[in-house]
Design goal:
The complex is a heterodimer of chains A (about 260) and B (about 280). Chain A is α/β, with parallel strands linked by helices and about 260 residues long. Chain A has 10 helices and 10 strands. In chain A, a hairpin with a 2-residue loop joins strand 9 and strand 10. Chain B is mainly alpha-helical and about 280 residues long. Classes of the chains: A alpha/beta (about 260), B mainly alpha (about 280).
Chain lengths: ~260, ~280
C-alpha cells in the first residue's frame, strides 16, 4: 500500500507472525497504517484478524501460549523491543472490544477516569475536563451529563459501548483499536459508532476489525483482507471493493465464500 | 390419554412428591431446632443475661456477658488473622493459580478444609499453649483462623473466577498493571461474593467448640485479656449443658439460642449482600 507522502506514518507491522504455542494464527503480515486514517480488517471467522489486532497493543501475549515474531513499529520504534514496557505501551494504544465491558463497580465518571488515574493523580478540575472531553468525543456526553455518578450498568448496550470508547480515548492514546465494536449492537447503535469513527479519525489513527463488509466500506479509508491467517490484499477501500487485484478478495466481497 | 402419558404423569407426580418430602424434612430440622431453642431458652433471656457474668454454682441469677464479649474477641481476632490471609490466598489461586504451585495450594486448602476442627485445636495447643504454659484467647483465635482460611480462600477463588475474562482484558488494555487489575477491577467486581464468603466463614467458626477446649479453655470471670483463658458462648454451652445444675441448663439453652440467632443474622446479611450484588450487576 502506498501512502501519500504528506501523511506521517504512525503504525506499521513487518512480517508479523502471531502464534499460540506452535500454531501460527497470523502469518507474516506487513501492513502500514497511515496517521488519521481508518483501516478496516475484514475476513471470514477464524482468519486471525482479531489476533492480529491484539498484537498491535501486545494483548496477544497475555493469551494462553501467545507469542509473536516479526516487528510492530510505532513511530519507528519496535513495540516488541526488550526495553518497551507493555503496560506503558497499552496506555498509548486504546482498545475497544466486541462486547461492551464497562467496569460494573464504577460510575460512568469513574469508568472514563480509570485510564487516566492509572497514569497518576491529577487535579480534580483537570480530571473533570478530561472526562467531559472524552465523553463529548464519544458522542455520549448529552446522554450522561446529568448522571455521571450513576452506575455504568444503567446505560443501554450502545451507550455502554460508546462509554468504553470514551474510556479508551480519555488518556489520549495515539492509536485506537476497535475489535468488532458493533457486533452486539442494534442498527441505531451501530450507526452512532460508525459516525464516531469519522469524527475520531481526525484525532486518532483507527484500526477496526469487522465482520460486516458494508461497515468496512462505510467507515474505512483502507481495507485489509485476511484469509487463513495471512494478509491477502490491502489497499484503498474504494479499490478493494470495486477492483480488487486478487481473485480471493473478489470472491469474498461478492459473497461467494466466507 | 395414552398409557405412556399416564405412566409419565404418575412418575412425575411420585418424584415431585419424594422431592417435596425430602425438602420438608431438611427444613423441618431447622424449624425444630429453632422452636426448641426458643421454647427452652427465650424465657431466660433478660437484661442480666447480657450484662452480668456468671454467679457461683448453685446461686441463681447471673448472665453470660463474659462469654458474649469473649466470643466477640476470639472470633474477631480470628477474622482479623484469617480473612486477609484467606482472601489473599483466594485471589492468588484465581489469578495465578493455574500452575503447579496453585495446584499444591488448592490441594492443601482442600485437605485443611476437611481436617476435623479438634485436630486443629490440638495443633494450636502444641504451638501456642504448651510452650507458654497457659491457655489463652489468642491461641483459640489462631485455631479458628486456621479453620477459616481454607473456607474463605476457596469461596474467594470461586467468586473471582466468576468475573468475566473480558473485564480483566479491558483493564489490561487500558494499561493497568496486573496486580492493579486484580485488585481494582476483578476483586472489586467480586466483592459481594467475597463478603458473603467471609460472613459464612465467620458464622461457621463462631459456633466451634472443639478447637477452643484446649486453647481458649473458658473462664467464669469477665476478662478482655487475650493472653488469658477466655469464655465463649460455645464453651459456656458445653460446660453448662453438661453440668449438674438446673440453673446452668437454663442459661445454656439461652446461650444456644443467642449463638443460633447470631449465626442466623450473619447468614441473612450474607444473603442480602449477595442479592445486592446481583441486583446491581444484573
Amino acid at each position: 500500500m502506498a501512502a501519500p507522502d504528506n501523511v506521517r506514518l504512525r503504525l506499521e507491522t513487518l512480517r508479523l507472525t502471531a502464534l499460540f504455542g506452535r500454531t501460527a494464527a497470523v502469518r507474516e503480515v506487513s501492513i502500514l497504517f497511515p496517521a488519521h486514517t481508518v483501516t478496516a480488517i475484514i475476513g471470514p471467522s477464524g482468519c486471525g484478524k482479531s489476533t492480529f489486532l491484539r498484537c498491535l497493543n501486545r494483548m496477544h501475549e497475555l493469551s494462553e501460549g501467545g507469542w509473536v515474531t516479526g516487528k510492530v513499529l510505532l513511530d519507528e520504534v519496535d513495540i516488541y523491543a526488550s526495553d518497551v514496557n507493555p503496560i506503558q505501551l497499552r496506555r498509548r494504544i486504546g482498545m475497544v472490544f466486541q462486547r461492551p465491558t464497562p467496569f460494573p463497580t464504577m460510575s460512568i465518571y469513574d469508568n472514563v477516569a480509570a485510564g487516566l488515574r492509572v497514569n497518576g493523580t491529577r487535579p480534580r478540575k483537570e480530571m473533570d475536563e478530561a472526562v467531559e472531553r472524552a465523553l463529548r468525543q464519544s458522542a455520549i456526553w448529552d446522554e450522561v451529563k446529568d448522571r455521571l455518578h450513576a452506575s455504568a450498568l444503567e446505560l443501554s448496550g450502545g451507550q455502554q459501548q460508546r462509554l468504553c470508547i470514551a474510556r479508551a480515548i480519555a488518556p489520549q492514546p495515539e492509536i485506537l483499536l476497535l475489535d468488532e465494536p458493533t457486533a452486539s449492537l442494534d442498527p441505531t447503535g451501530t450507526q452512532r459508532i460508525e459516525e464516531l469513527c469519522h469524527e475520531l479519525k481526525k484525532v486518532y489513527t483507527i484500526v477496526i476489525v469487522t465482520h460486516n463488509l458494508q461497515q468496512a466500506a462505510r467507515v474505512s479509508d483502507y481495507t485489509a483482507f485476511f484469509y487463513m491467517g495471512g494478509l491477502v490484499e490491502v489497499g484503498r477501500t474504494s479499490d478493494i471493493f470495486t477492483k480488487p487485484k486478487v481473485e480471493q478478495t473478489e470472491q469474498y466481497i461478492t459473497g461467494r465464500f466466507g | 390419554m395414552s398409557a405412556r402419558t399416564v405412566r409419565r404423569r404418575i412418575a412425575s407426580g411420585v418424584m415431585t412428591g419424594i422431592v417435596a418430602v425430602l425438602s420438608f424434612t431438611a427444613v423441618l430440622a431447622l424449624v425444630l431446632i429453632l422452636a426448641d431453642l426458643i421454647a427452652k431458652g427465650a424465657s431466660s433471656i433478660d437484661w442480666a443475661f447480657f450484662t452480668k457474668s456468671p454467679v457461683p454454682a448453685g446461686e441463681s441469677g447471673g448472665g453470660v456477658a463474659n462469654a458474649i464479649v469473649g466470643t466477640g474477641i476470639v472470633v474477631g481476632m480470628a477474622a482479623l488473622i484469617g480473612l486477609p490471609i484467606g482472601i489473599g490466598v483466594g485471589l492468588f489461586l484465581a489469578e495465578y493459580g493455574s500452575g503447579r504451585v496453585g495446584f499444591l495450594v488448592r490441594f492443601i486448602a482442600d485437605v485443611l478444609n476437611g481436617t476435623p476442627s479438634i485436630v486443629i485445636g490440638i495443633f494450636a495447643w502444641t504451638w501456642m499453649v504448651k510452650p507458654v504454659g497457659r491457655f489463652s484467647a489468642i491461641a483459640g483465635s489462631l485455631a479458628l483462623a486456621i479453620l477459616m482460611i481454607p473456607m474463605i480462600s476457596r469461596t474467594t477463588e470461586e467468586m473471582v473466577r466468576l468475573v468475566p475474562h473480558s473485564l480483566r482484558e479491558a483493564a489490561l488494555a487500558l494499561g493497568y498493571p496486573r496486580w492493579r487489575t486484580s485488585l481494582r477491577v476483578v476483586a472489586r467486581t467480586a466483592l459481594g461474593g467475597i463478603v458473603t464468603g467471609c460472613l459464612v466463614g465467620i458464622a461457621r467458626v463462631a459456633g466451634e467448640t472443639a478447637p477452643l477446649l484446649f486453647t481458649a479453655l473458658g473462664n467464669l470471670n469477665f476478662t478482655t485479656k487475650v493472653t488469658q483463658p477466655m469464655q465463649t458462648l460455645s464453651l459456656q454451652i458445653y460446660v453448662y449443658a453438661t453440668g449438674p445444675f438446673e440453673e446452668w441448663h437454663r442459661i445454656a439453652w439461652a446461650a444456644a439460642l443467642l449463638l443460633m440467632a447470631f449465626v442466623l443474622i450473619l447468614a441473612m446479611v450474607a444473603r442480602y449482600v449477595t442479592r445486592q450484588r446481583y441486583g446491581r450487576a444484573r
